[in-house]
Amino acid sequence: MKALLLSAYKQLDIVDLPTPKPAEDELLIRIRACGICGSDVHGYDGSTGRRLPPIIMGHEAAGIIESVGSAVRNFRAGDRVTFDSTVYCGKCFYCLRGQINLCDSREVIGVSTPAFRRMGAFAEFVAVPARIAYPLPDNMPYPHAALIEAASVAVHAVSLTPIAPDDTVVVVGAGMIGLLVLQAARQAGAGRVFAVDLDDTRLELARSLGATGTFNSRNTDVAAQILAQTMGRGADAALECAGSTIPVKLALDSVRKGGTVTLIGNVAPTIELSLQSTVTRQIRLQGSCASSGEYPVCISMISRGAIQVEPLISAVAPVEDGASWFHRLYEREPGLLKVVLEP
Ligand SMILES: [Zn+2]
Ligand SMILES: [Zn+2]
Fold first, then answer.
1. Partner of 243 for a Cys bridge, out of 6, 34, 134, 267, CB 3.0 to 4.6 A?
2. Closest-approaching ligand to the CA atom of 60
3. Is the whole model's pTM more than 0.70, yes or no?
């Protein structure tokens, strides 16, 4: 089969590899669309240590089942499916509690570390356990289905954040995840959702996707603006999707006493945190990692347009052009959000 292989750091090649053979509990999926994740771009140069070459990356994918292992009962060849990026064991303490994203033996499709190597979906075929697959509605195009994984990250984070009807929510960082978080927060009942970013184009997109108001933190005192909009109190919750000291501080400064800051962005390994302000204002800090069973909800929300993904897709391109798209994303070409490759 044809595959886009990370042969060495910053080197992607189209290669011919043997088609994987599905184990008895696995599906062999013919990939029709696979999104390039920020984590793939960060892994591509070796900086995260989670894409040890040689590896086929790609975990935001959808396709058609080619064949099923002998023990698979609930899927058949020809079914349209997507699958979770997380491969969980189903047996450990966390899996038994339904917290599959915290599985002690968690592996991720298209990721390789010293502990495991799971070939991903920038390829004609991938084999995945049937338990992580979900059927797709007929009306959902494959490139849209490739964004379910990212949507699940957003919906998971929102589900961990206390949001009551008419609450005011701040989303810090209006990139891919932030724009999905903003839509998920509206769906969760937030009365007003403010989006913050450094890029006016993204903020314009945020408004078109339902943000009540937007602030460019390059030229605005965002916390002061949020206080002014909330009778001096601050927002009920903030969801931080950037992942470094300044935006986390902004999120903390934007919430009211007793508010929640949910941390999704994960870039700087450590940050500086104003301890006193967090403790004395009784702020709840909530980490959020990947997703944990939100796929069916996201499939439904995207399918009925409650979460819009089309505006987040910058390009759909053949997998043969993958190396150049990775390069453009790596060089942070302005205006690019999700790039979806078609094997
Ligand atoms: Zn991802
Ligand atoms: Zn487990």
1. 267
2. 1
3. yes
